[in-house]
Design a protein that fits this description.
Shape: globular
Number of strands: 10
Order of helices and strands: EEEEEEEEEE
Radius of gyration: 13 Å
Strand order of the largest sheet: 2-10-9-4-5-6
Largest sheet: 6 strands, mixed
Number of helices: 0
Strand content: over 45%
Distance between the termini: 36 Å
Helix content: under 10%
Length: 121
């Protein structure tokens, strides 16, 4: 499965962005899907994930602000990001996991291409 993320950009603090992930080369319906972010000097972080059955996981720092969703018919995953903060600045990667039971564990994910999100203060 190849994953292409889009929708990143420059936004002011408090703004919103919606990231999209288009999958090709296979169907995502059986996979857990997630968004992983990485910024300079910080560890890679699983920001949000959604199991094949629709269960969701969010890292504490984005709870109440980010929403992950999936559209299996469109073979796509989305991340709605509201109330953005400068610390959300990172490259965001769409990722899939074969370990649906462990959809909340970063190490089970395979990343695709990322999109840069920059939040200005």
């Amino acid at each position: 499965v190849q994953l292409q993320a889009s929708g990143g950009g420059l936004v002011q603090t408090g703004g919103s962005l919606r990231l999209s992930c288009a999958a090709s080369g296979g169907t995502i319906s059986r996979y857990a899907m997630g968004w992983i972010r990485q910024s300079p000097g910080k560890e890679r972080e699983l920001v949000a994930a959604i199991s094949s059955g629709g269960y969701t996981y969010y890292v504490d720092s984005v709870k109440g602000r980010f929403t992950i969703s999936r559209d299996n018919a469109q073979n796509s995953v989305y991340l709605q990001m509201n109330s953005l903060k400068p610390e959300d600045t990172a490259v965001y990667y769409c990722a899939y996991s074969l370990s649906d039971d462990y959809y909340y564990r970063r190490e089970t994910y395979h990343r695709g291409q990322g999109t840069l999100v920059t939040v200005s203060s």
